[in-house]
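Z., the sequence and structure:
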Amino acid sequence: MRAILLAVMMCLVTHSVCAKVDKVLVDRVVVDKVVVEKSKATLYLLDGDKIIREYSVALGGNPVGHKEQEGDERTPEGEYILDYKKSDSAFYRSIHISYPNADDQNRAKGLAVSPGGLIMIHGQKNGFAWLSPVMQWFNWTDGCIALSNSEMEELWSLVEVGTVIEILP
């Protein structure tokens, strides 16, 4: 019985210490750029050239190629700014990507179409977090970049408004 009690206490102490260490590490992290590689369905948080976090993501339902118009279900490609955070979104938290930029608007104008907008990094649809282990295997968004809610929580705490995001093919 003493051995079991000792084992339980060790687990609790170890978990508590590890949680505090992880919190300290998160507090010291500086994210100066977010990079998404669409072909790898991966989002990276960078401090200079150093990758400090890596997440698997779900993209738009038609992920190959640059977003050209509203409704094409593509995730844009290029360099943008994460320009505001929205805690009351239809999805678990969201961070807005500054799409469309001037080039995107000019391209859409030349095609006589709307470029679309409201491209975000977000968690799961509210009320459906339990589906995350399945949903993250599919490109299910309308062009946004989706994470699990726990990953979105971490991203939310690490990334400041004004951070550059580069979305690669």
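The first strand starts at residue 33 and ends at 37. Strands lie at 33-37, 42-47, 50-56, 78-86, 94-97, 120-122, 145-146, 164-168.

Let me know what you think.
H.
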